[in-house]
Amino acid sequence: MVLEKQQQVLTLIEEITRNDGTSYYEIGNMVHNGRAELAAERGFIKQVRILQLNIPHSRNVIKYEDYVNSHYQMQDESMDHWEEWKRTPEMDQVVEDILKENHVG
Which long-range contacts (CB under 8 A, 24 or more apart) does 77-86 make? Predict the structure, then answer.
């Protein structure tokens, strides 16, 4: 089951570690982080860490929000897997730029 479509406002940077030990950075919010914590408890991912809270709502963050909101819905608490937000090469660059803007990575 998926929550009703909502516009997500992205406010933080997380590091998510997959079960295979590889990790990636994600731009999320407290709801996304809570879902990732639940996914870790259920063994779908190894762990999630918040690296930076309250990131500036830059043009790049707005671009990534638009991408996430048009391609994904926030998982609800009944999730049976972790849905990693797959990115296009353009969105990979936007996320890299967000990390640079916030001195992360």
Answer: 77/35, 77/38, 78/1, 79/35, 79/38, 79/39, 79/42, 79/44, 81/44, 82/36, 82/39, 82/44, 82/45, 84/16, 84/18, 84/24, 85/26
